[in-house]
Amino acid sequence: GNSVTQMEGPVTLSEEAFLTINCTYTATGYPSLFWYVQYPGEGLQLLLKATKADDKGSNKGFEATYRKETTSFHLEKGSVQVSDSAVYFCALSDASGGSYIPTFGRGTSLIVHP
Amino acid sequence: EAGVAQSPRYKIIEKRQSVAFWCNPISGHATLYWYQQILGQGPKLLIQFQNNGVVDDSQLPKDRFSAERLKGVDSTLKIQPAKLEDSAVYLCASSRQRTAGATNEKLFFGSGTQLSVL
After folding, report:
1. Which residues in chain B are contacts of A43 at CB distance < 8 A?
2. In what order do the strands lie in the sheet with B75-79?
């Protein structure tokens, strides 16, 4: 079955530091890949997505590139801010076999200190 | 545009009691999902509706969980009887009409219902 593996958190950084959150996946078909973010007290919201190999999703200074050869979709940001403190979820959706079940990783908590 | 509405926001019950959660998706969204998110874990899909039909409920513990979406709009998720391990946040999400083979539709999530079973 499909699965998503994320690095364990929390990730603790100082403001303006570089961020990488690793995500790898297993899928039976050719999935679309997503990063969702959950700010404190709020629901999950889409941060960025990529639908085919070598696509780069980007939003709010965050980027992730769909790497089919390494089955990875790592999230990066060059300079984090305190307001980026949240939980980040990597996810995939795969329509192979007729099903379409969005599958999420366990989430990685990011804490940014001033 | 109004978001996905869920209620209640919090619920505390004792084991073996019953509980129900309500979700109203974004207007016009045909697909509705219920996820269970246990503390420290990612959301796990319980059930997926397309309009008022069930697309997938393979991970729904059917001996105690039930869900319905009778008119293809709002939905209720019920647990009867509750167990301690049901303590979690129950998330509702919706997306636009799913077309065959489409995988890139984003999900819109509600704020969730936090359930504590004592």
Report:
1. 3-4, 91, 109-112
2. B5-7, B19-24, B75-79, B65-68
CB contact under 8 A, B42 and A95: no
CA A87 – CA A40 distance, rounded (Å) = 8
> CA–CA separation, A99 vs A27, rounded Å?
12
| Rounded alpha-carbon distances, angstroms, from residue A71 to A20, A31, B1 | 16, 10, 36
pLDDT digits (tens, 9 = 90+) for A70-105: 999 999 999 999 999 999 999 998 865 555 678 899
Asked if B50 and B31 touch (Cβ cutoff 8 Å), the reply is yes
For chain B (length 118 residues), average pLDDT per consecutive 10? 90 97 93 92 91 89 94 94 97 79 77 96
Contacts of A94 in chain B (CB under 8 A): 103
